[in-house]
Amino acid sequence: MPILSLAAALALLAGPPAPAPAAEAGAFCRIVLFPGVRSPDEAYFIAVAEPDMVWVDVGSRVAARGADSTAASATYVHGETPPEPLAGFAQGQRVRVERIAGASADAVERAFARAGRREAVLVPWGYDSRCRTRWYERSGRWIEPGKRGFVHAAPRPESEWTGGVPVFDVFYGGIQPYPHTRPAEDDGRPWLSADELLDLWVLLPVWGDDLGPGSGARRRASAWLRADPGRATRYPAPYLLGWHPAAPRPR
Predict the structure, then answer these.
(1) Which residues pair with 30 in a beta bridge?
(2) pLDDT tens for residues 66-120?
(3) Whole-prediction pTM value?
(4) Is 177 exposed, middle or buried (0-12, 13-18, 19+ CB in 10 A)?
(5) Residue 52: phi, psi to the nearest 5?
(6) Cβ–Cβ under 8 Å, residues 215 and 208
(7) In Å, how far from its chain's centre is CA 224?
(8) Quick one: residue 244, left, alpha or beta (phi over 0 = left, psi -120 to 50 = alpha)?
């Protein structure tokens, strides 16, 4: 299941964390930015945004969700002129990937080695008030060029790459990459760097893992907490490790 990752306790009328629609129209959708678990279907990486955009197929993952991808939005940023809508296509932004882990990481690294460059395309997606994936409402150039940050995204199969370049679907694109705008649960404490967040993210349990004493997840998190107790107080570590009894509590 793609991207159920993103800020503890940020409730929006028009925000879905789950891939399934809300039970009733008008129901609240809760986006959980940092739920303390990671999806086995996601990749996690540090990327630097490039200025170039590219049109790509909507992709099988989004098509299966029934996303409204028949037209691009007329709301664009960075002063671009909106292109003509292309049914069945979406805009993505080229990025340079510095580090990557998680789903399809090995295949992506092999692609980088073949190409001699670490280029990927990130396709942002939004959501509607019924928790359904929808066309992102701003430009495909959704990350300020040159910005470096942590991203978690759903890798597409190699058959859906563009010209040999790996493609990732970024659900809830408006609140990635990290660091992003200060969310509702931010309490003013210092933030982890993007690299520190990636280092912690790869240690998190996967959905369904045992979190009890003696479990691998508990041991990994305990070692991370002992290595630098001060680091564990930085946002969003208390939210990511809220399941661990020794982790600092959110203020």
Answers:
(1) 11
(2) 555 433 333 333 334 444 445 677 889 999 999 999 999 999 999 999 999 999 9
(3) 0.79
(4) buried
(5) -80, 140
(6) no
(7) 22
(8) beta
